Recover the amino acids of this structure.
């Protein structure tokens, strides 16, 4: 879909049929966060003493995919990393599949659809280009619009099932950046996919780096 030369609100209206001014100013703010972290390229024009922002060429698919991913991963830095880091992208594909297609909860059952599996498969295939191809959208209404600032889809789904599945609690801790809790919970998962094992390995690495950094600070303090 060609959105070159459109403002961010115009592009979102064309991509999702959403008038951000009336329906979701939050969605515009989310899109602008991807401009600020340079995931989405734009050009600016000075008009009547104010800057107007327009999408550069070939940015519409990236914006579309970034906003869909942001429905699950609320931190714009994480979304950008999915675009740039293949290993992290594969790990996030595991999370998407777990949250959107392997749910036993009422919310998860409502979200199960062919598009959910297609989204997970698209994300798991590093040969699919997030900047040039449209990722399947499993949402009738983007969660950023439906839920607003109150919560995120990911946390609503995982928190609902966290008491039932140790792997759900593990994923929730992982995505909250609570590495120590995630490491503790990982010991409760008797078996898992290679992707879950990769998440455990990354958590061990993050904790090791955090401890090494803490030790370094202690060394400087004691000098």
């Amino acid at each position: 879909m060609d959105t070159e030369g459109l403002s961010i609100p115009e592009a979102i209206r064309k991509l999702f049929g959403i008038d951000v001014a009336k329906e979701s100013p939050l969605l515009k703010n989310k899109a602008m966060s991807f401009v600020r972290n340079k995931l989405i390229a734009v050009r600016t024009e000075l008009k009547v003493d104010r800057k107007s922002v327009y999408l550069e060429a070939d940015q519409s698919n990236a914006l579309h995919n970034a906003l869909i991913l942001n429905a699950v991963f609320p931190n714009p830095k994480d979304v950008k990393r999915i675009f740039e880091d293949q290993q992290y992208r594969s790990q996030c594909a595991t999370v998407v599949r777990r949250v959107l297609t392997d749910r036993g909860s009422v919310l998860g059952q409502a979200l199960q659809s062919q598009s959910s599996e297609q989204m997970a498969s698209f994300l798991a295939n590093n040969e699919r280009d997030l900047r040039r191809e449209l990722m399947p959208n499993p949402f009738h209404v983007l969660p950023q619009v439906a839920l607003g600032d109150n919560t995120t889809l990911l946390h609503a789904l995982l928190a609902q099932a966290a008491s039932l599945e140790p792997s759900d609690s593990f994923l929730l801790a992982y995505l909250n950046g609570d590495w120590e809790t995630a490491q503790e919970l990982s010991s409760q998962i008797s078996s898992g996919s290679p992707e879950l094992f990769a998440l455990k390995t990354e958590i061990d690495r993050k904790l090791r780096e955090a401890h090494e950094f803490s030790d370094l600070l202690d060394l400087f303090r004691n000098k």
